[in-house]
Amino acid sequence: MKDFLGNYSALLESQISAMPFGKQPPSLYEPIRYVMRLGGKRIRPMLTLLSYAMFRDDVRPIVPYAVAVEVFHNFTLMHDDIMDRAPLRRGKPTVHEKWNLSTAILSGDVMLVKVYELFSSLDPSTFRTAVEAFNACATKVCEGQQWDMHFEGTDRVTEAAYLRMIQYKTAELLGFSLELGAILAGADEASRNRLREFGLLIGTGFQLRDDLLDAYGDPGRFGKQTGGDILANKKTFLLIKALERAGSAERKELTYWLNVKKFDKKKKVKAVIAIYDKLKIPQLTSRKADRYFAKAFALLDHFPNTPARENLRTFTQLLMDRQQ
Fold first, then answer.
1. Maximum pairwise Cα distance, the chain
2. What is the per-residue pLDDT across 263-307, written as a single tens digit (0 to 9) for each?
3. Is 279:290 a contact under the CB 8 Å cutoff?
4. Which residues, in sequence order, are bridge partners of residue 88?
């Protein structure tokens, strides 16, 4: 781990550990502490710190606002897990499994309130700019989630529609995380926009990689149920391209697995992955993701060649190379 990442991670974890969130009733606040303690790579708040550092030296004053991004992210995960009926998150039981559905909804709602509470200490002009950008992002995230659920009941989803969905659901928050760092640093609008676009591009690439991990990852390392997207008939990039490339035999089998109501879960996942392998869908998906990363790195060349810029590049590269 690079030194700057260790330092930033320590700042974030210290801030998260110190946050009280609330006390009474315990059943409302303990799920929040549970989710926030599950860890993860803290990608989004790390991007906020890295972006800010491109314009100012000391990131410590903005750590609470970077943590606000992580609180929002975990709020979306808590509600997303409910909608997906996901049993695991980062290798541990999801909140609705460990507690119950109503508690997960209410605890998530409180987390969203806490985001605005954290932003409220900003000076008025910065607060307005930051919250306007956050509101636009949060709306897109909800729109993306709705498109994702809509696609589950749709027979045909185009590649363009899918890419729009993952940009809204996943990439927008990475874009906002980087834009927030620039806003808090007082950066010019062009820099803000470039960093936001950088986040949109890498976010799209990461989601394509996550689609692959959902089908092919080790659940012990990935922290999620392997094949969950396949079992839920999610119209991922993998499935969309498989349907495009399928011959009559592969299409017939895919159609069967997409429509059958009672099935053995392991058998379905194994059968669909075999079709993906035959059609070389993993290789196609990896190449698509790599193109987004290449466009993102080209945007960094618009910024001065400083250690802070290279730190952002290094962090992104580490995420690209991750195996879980």
1. 62
2. 999 999 999 999 999 999 999 999 999 999 999 999 999 999 999
3. no
4. 93
